[in-house]
Amino acid sequence: MTFTLPGFDLGKFVRDTLAEDLGEGQPGGGRDVTSESVIPADARFSGVMDSRDAIVVAGLPLAEAFFRHLDPDCTIETLVHDGDRVAAGTDLMRIEGRARALLTAERSALNTVQHLSGIATLTQAYVTAMRGPGGNPACTLLDTRKTIPGLRTLEKYATRQGGAQNHRMGLWDAAMIKDNHVAVAGSVGEAVRRARDAGVARIICEVDELDQIEPALAAGAHHLLLDNMDPATLAEAVRIVAGRVPTEASGGVNLDTIAAKAASGVDYISVGRLTQSAPAADIGLDFQPL
After folding, report:
1. Is 83 left (phi over 0), alpha (psi -120 to 50) or beta?
2. Which stretch of DSSP H or E encloses residue 276?
3. Does residue 196 have a pLDDT over 70?
């Protein structure tokens, strides 16, 4: 199994997650007291992870890493792949190995797959709604920085499995000038100019009024975020920009409004709730003794 993401340490993630669950460093911690007291040391299990919902799958390689960390000799058969859309009742993975180890890893593995699959599933629902009747097939869905601390790389991986494209990964890979930056700088144009003069390679500027568009472009913005505009105002903003830079709709976007906003002609729509509000997928794991 090979699972790599830029800036993500899979081994550390697995170790830290299991250490938290086992209570390492806590008085009496560092053990799975239930499995140790109830399950014989030589017992073996086989199990099937399945989805009780129709979902877009994400996180199976991480689940495998949890099980193999505690039982390197376990047998794992992955039945579907991350990014697959599966029906309710679909088997995702078969596992066989030492019962204590598999039970200790179970919750960490399931939590991860449930969370990431929930994000991927919600993301695909937004993509479908955006490109549906009256929408804009050419529009691209973006995620945001509204992620759980420590899980950004994984959550943004999950949005990709659902069909979105990553926006900024963090504060370092592009300037995003928002209303609070503008308030300190004095104007949209001045804020963009300062970023340009600092040599920032990619400058995204939020505008919430049509009369901010030309000053932002004149100062050197590379991308305009059109914030909290209704579809008619978005269409007028797109007309003013006239293809000079990419345009992005943001704010007030939900499954009921995204098609109309996409139909305005914007290039991108960003949705914070992809990572901020996605419900966990209903995924279970049932074991049988061998």
Report:
1. left
2. helix 273-276
3. yes
**In angstroms, rounded to a whole number, what is the distance separating the alpha carbons of residues 74 and 248?**
47
Measured distance CA(206)–CA(37) in Å, rounded: 58
What is the structure's pLDDT at 2?
Answer: 81
Q: What integer pLDDT is reported at residue 135 of this predicted model? A: 66
- Measuring CA to CA, which residue among 152, 126, 149 is closest to residue 56? 126
Up-side HSE of residue 278: CA atoms within 13 Å toward CB?
32
- 3-class DSSP assignment, residue 8: strand
Q: How far is CA 67 from the centre of its chain?
A: 23
List all residues 6 or more positions away from 66 whose beta carbon is below 8 Å from its beta carbon: 14, 17, 18, 105, 108, 109, 112
CA angle (232, 238, 241) in 5-degree steps: 145
**Which of left, alpha, beta for 24 (phi over 0: left; psi -120 to 50: alpha)?**
beta
The string over 196-206, giving b where at least 16 C-beta atoms fall within 10 Å of a residue's C-beta and e elsewhere, is eeeebeebbbb
Q: From CA 124, how far away is CA 145, in angstroms rounded?
A: 18
The structure tokens 């945001």 sit at: 144
Sheet of strand 175-177, all strands in order from the earlier edge strand to the far edge? 140-142, 268-270, 247-250, 223-227, 203-207, 175-177
- Read off the pLDDT band of 107 (50, 70, 90): very high
> Which pLDDT value is given to residue 261?
95
Find the angle CA(9)-CA(10)-CA(13) to the nearest 5 degrees: 90
Q: How confident is the model at residue 64 (pLDDT cuts 50, 70, 90)?
A: very high
Q: Which residues pair with 225 in a beta bridge?
A: 206, 248
The model's pTM is: 0.95
pLDDT tens figures, 129-163: 998 776 678 899 999 999 999 999 999 999 999 99
pLDDT of residue 132: 77
What's residue 89's pLDDT?
97
Contact 258, 270 (CB under 8 A): no
